Amino acid sequence: MATPNLSLAVAQGVRKVKPRLRGVSHQITFFVGLVGAAALVRLAPPGAATWAVGVYAASFLLLFGGSALYHRPTWSPRWRARLQRVDHAAIFGLIAGTYTPIAVLAVPPDVGQRLLLMVWLGAGAGMALSVLWVKVPKALMAALCVALGWIIVADWEAVRLGLGQPAAGLVVAGGALYTVGAVVYAARWPDPAPRVFGYHEVFHLFTIAAAGCHAVVVAGLL
Predict the structure, then answer these.
(1) What's the CA gap between 204 and 188, in Å, rounded?
(2) What whole-number distance in Å separates Cα of residue 140 and Cα of residue 145?
(3) Model confidence at 184, in pLDDT bands (50, 70, 90)?
(4) Residues 6+ apart with CB under 8 A from 47
(5) Is residue 37 within 8 Å of 64, Cβ to Cβ?
(6) What is d(CA 170, CA 220) in angstroms, rounded to the nearest whole number?
(7) Is the pLDDT score of 208 beyond 50?
(8) How far apart are CA 23 and CA 30, in angstroms?
(9) What pLDDT, on a 0 to 100 scale, did the predictor assign at position 9?
(10) What is the pTM of this model?
(11) What pLDDT does residue 17 have?
């Protein structure tokens, strides 16, 4: 008969088993993104469009590449903590990176400069928090990312007019998908198959769908 301590240890061990598909979707997205990022940068006209799209492409690849690197292998505790910092910081980087081509190419300069200032200051603070506080609660992390992601509503009318209705709709759709994903991440639900495809994998699928919506928006600016 198992002792209570042994039973607890076994239960904790089961909970810590990494699902077999952890990070696979982000790994695939990274390699697809390499092709897409190269195409976007190549299509961008010289000047502001090139660097703005370059920032977006770099942030996209850092997020999905860093996530795959963190989630796929089994790391030592020390390296796991280091890569978790990169993984979390890259989320804020992608939020700001996605804003960058919209702010530079789709809206009047004064609006764009204001958006860039707000989102990059917020992203910088989020990155610093991710580096300094590895064990930040999931709910807080999700709330901060969602708040930063929706900062666009402060200048929504200018963004809507600059992008046009279809692209603006994709911005909203992407934001909604990110928000639902953040809720899944914070709630750890649904968790369909914890040993194979758990709540974190569901969260990752929402991030991919959201990023896809926004990639179409960025491509449409070129």
Answers:
(1) 12
(2) 9
(3) very high
(4) none
(5) no
(6) 11
(7) yes
(8) 11
(9) 39
(10) 0.92
(11) 85
Condensed to tens digits (0 to 9), the pLDDT of residues 101-117 reads 999 999 999 999 999 99
Q: 3-state secondary structure string, the chain?
A: CCCHHHHHHHHHHHHCCCCCCCCHHHHHHHHHHHHHHHHHHHHCCCCHHHHHHHHHHHHHHHHHHHHHHHHCCCCCHHHHHHHHHHHHHHHHHHHHHHHHHHHHHCCCHHHHHHHHHHHHHHHHHHHHHHHHCCCCCHHHHHHHHHHHHHHHHHHHHHHHHHHCHHHHHHHHHHHHHHHHHHHHHHHCCCCCECCCECHHHHHHHHHHHHHHHHHHHHHHCC
Q: Name the percent of the chain lying above pLDDT 90.
A: 91
- Distance between CA atoms of 145 and 127, rounded to whole angstroms? 11
Structure tokens at 48: 């502001």
First to last CA, the chain: 67
The structure tokens listed for 129 are 């928090």
The C-alpha atoms of residue 113 and residue 91 are separated, in whole angstroms, by 21
Residue in 196, 219, 222, 220 with CA at minimum distance from that of residue 36 = 219
Other CB atoms closer than 10 Å to residue 216's CB: what's the count? 15
pLDDT level of residue 140 (50, 70, 90 thresholds): very high
pLDDT confidence tier of residue 134, bands split at 50, 70 and 90: confident
- Mean of the per-residue pLDDT values for the chain? 94
